[in-house]
Amino acid sequence: MSARLTGRPASPGVALAPAFVVQARRRGHATPGAPGTPEQERARLEDALARAQRDLRELAAGLARQVGEEEAAIFLAHAEFAADPEVAARARSAVEQGATAEEAVQRAFDEFKPLLTASGDEYLAARATDVEDVCNTVLDILAGAGPLPSPAERSVIVAVDLTPSETARLPTELIAAIACESGSPTSHAAILARALGSPAVLGVPGLLEATRPGVPVAVDGSSGEVIVDPDRSERAAFDAREQSEAARRARLLALRYELGRTADGRRVEVAANINDPADVVRAQEFGAEGCGLVRTEFLFLDRLRPPDVPTQERHYRDVLSAFPGRRVVFRTMDIGADKPLPFVRREPEENPALGVRGIRLSLVRPELLRAQLRALVRAADAGRLAIMFPMVSRPEELIRSREVLREIAREERVDPGSIEIGVMVEVPAAALAARRLARNADFLSLGTNDLLQYLFAADRLLAEVAELPDLLDPDVLRLVGDVVGAAHGEGAWVGVCGEAAADPVSAAALVGLGVDELSMTPTAIPEVKDRLRRVSHADLAAAVGKAMEAPDAESARALVRAALPG
Amino acid sequence: VFAQAAARFRSEVRVAKDDREANAKSVLSVLTLDCHRGDTLTITADGEDAEQALAELVALVESGLGE
Question: Coil, helix or strand for B12?
């Protein structure tokens, strides 16, 4: 008898394999029977704390290689908690008073939880959950039973929930999928599954009761479906799903390092947006053809003083050298009154989106811009450097910034002609001034998120008006087409670095309008390359031409979508 | 970051905010102080490398903890 269950999709993909049930171990209770002598308990305690630290560090190192620093950081923080001298001291003194190692660990960690939750600070309250996790990890080690039994073949891992130490011990090559009765898309099991590219469904009520070890389990990590012991027809359906999924993945994987082009051979560079150093690895992994937008704000936020030139240069060099021969576009810092910096003391503004931000701030605080440009120019020999200025509304702003850049390049004895200069088109005035801007730049980069927000006068963070802005609005399409035409007329190329670049229909419309480069979040790159390959530029251009004549955004969208293959 | 830096010194290091005090080498204890940018902290150190510990930790806090 098959059992169909549903949980929360946590990592996409489809798999059908025998179940490997990880037994929930009792934790949080003192071992029944005789506790050891204080000396024995103390030795168990020290051993468990040390092992928890080691496991968590190993898990973090593995994740850092496979997924990214950000995911690994959670477990590094957990390792710090396991290494905390106050926890160890409290647990030791409990043991000396006759507690078992389990009781001691529980008490030591428990002392911190109320202090963290009491503050009312959301960040600290979330750390209380981390403390709980670490405590369980240590208790699991004490409950011990040594390492987890390992599955003998490729299996679907079935458990109530997986702790970090359990996840760290599973042999990754034998994980076909993960299904947990509890857990959320942000839990360890989900992070691990995404790192491995294995399907995972979490929060599946009734899972353990329905599952016997070795019984086949089908997991669809996209729909959240889990079928225990599927019958013949369910099996066939899953096999088909698994095969088409595998074929799709193989195609994307094969395509990843191919150049972006349409079916009729028009080149479209598919590049990555980079927010912080961790994105660099992801961008390489997903086959970015360089970077269309490297945000530099992360260097400046949360600091009392601006980073000095050598510090900035080091960061810029790292990014440039990660993409040999590929263009890397750095955006000078886009900081406004919504992100106040201690070293940029300014009056608060009623309306930061319309205030002194981006190039406007850089021009009133030229020392910040000069230091940033100097660091960029010094890093120029590490790769193919391009620089663009944000929030430009008049050509004069571009011309002044370009002069500063040229002057610094001369001072640093770097040929200014070797650095491409661009301007973000995100203010409607800049879109209207596209021809004059393009005359003074090598490229224009459409920041569709801001451009749409300003065109429709709708705050994109305000839910009630968030639906108004639409790139597929017929007259917005016309405006973008005009910007592209104006730029090309002046010999400048056009990129897009907003979210639209990663959305299938919007990206198709942009390519149809003649955009030369799409820059997006790294994980979206293979899909976009795949879609471009299956459609011709001529068809897209024709479709978008018709879309401009459509009565509204909905019909325009339908016209573009009709040009796309299934 | 702060607790990691403090842990490098042999001296006992304590950090206090308002009327509460914590072991500076313990991440969890420091977290429970609920420190925010602009808070005034008092750092004390006792031991052979106390002076060096104080100098480095004060500099670290003033630089915004390298974040």
Answer: strand
